[in-house]
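Section 3.1: Structural characterization of target chains.
Under the original work plan, the team committed to producing a structural model for every single-chain target entering the pipeline before any wet-lab resources were allocated. The record below documents one such target. The sequence was received from the expression subgroup and is listed exactly as submitted; it comprises 305 residues.
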Amino acid sequence: MAELSHRQENLYAVGFAGDSFNTLWYARAVSDESKVKIKFVSAVGTDELSDNFMSLLSENNIDASAVTRHENRTIGLYLISLDAHGERSFTYWRSQSAARTLADSPSVLSASLVGVDCIFFSGITLAILNMHQRQTLFDCLSTCKKNGALIAFDSNFRPKLWESERAMIDATIQGYQVSSLALPTRQDEMSIFCDASEHAIVDRIRSYGVSEVVIKNGPADCSVWIDDQRFIVPAAAVPQPVDTTGAGDSFNGAYIASRLEGKTGQESARAAHKIAAQVIMSRGALVEMSKLRANLDLDSVDQQV
């Protein structure tokens, strides 16, 4: 999506963002480009804005071969609004976005995922698809999981994007059922599913067949649950946030990339906290990769006790 981020009175900067793309962006930022190939699977238009987005992918070594071009649609748009504490809210214009055609063709979607080791999707991915498109996506993901791919899912609730709360809940459960790694937010899960505690959240998500659950909790500590083990990983200390947009997405990207590199859940969560702490000190969802890498020393994070 195109992102409008406030800079000063009556002046907004235009960038690109979206929760799945943000996650991919930060996975790219913290992984070795010579060893890890990152692909974006989506759809854009054929207009200048879409051309600029495709250039952004190319400039940052992100494979765009699975991004289809739609002649009659373009990229969605959203506006970030911030309160005095840097907490964000969003206004969307996305009803005709090209990304809504992501799962129109089962064969094209399946072909784009062949041979992929890890796939990330979110509750927003599900929300912008209709019922039949969601099932196409679920079928593809289920096949990839059976073939050994790691399927990572962030429920990322946005009730305004859904036709009903029941549809949101049912689709979220299906999302968990095709996943092996879950990255939910504590308060969201407790609010939507009425879970009484974090243990209840984890028990429920595990009942769907998910083996690894990472509970994000805003600026507080996160919990990593792998099989029968639980680890509490402290959040990185930060001053007053500038903009919390993309914090959870950056956590997701760094965690997934670290796990794929063979790091433990604890090490991966520490790296994820550190990158999120950098992101909330900048405006907008994306921090330039060169700037981010200059300020991160993820190896030293992994050595902390």
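The first strand starts at residue 2 and ends at 8.
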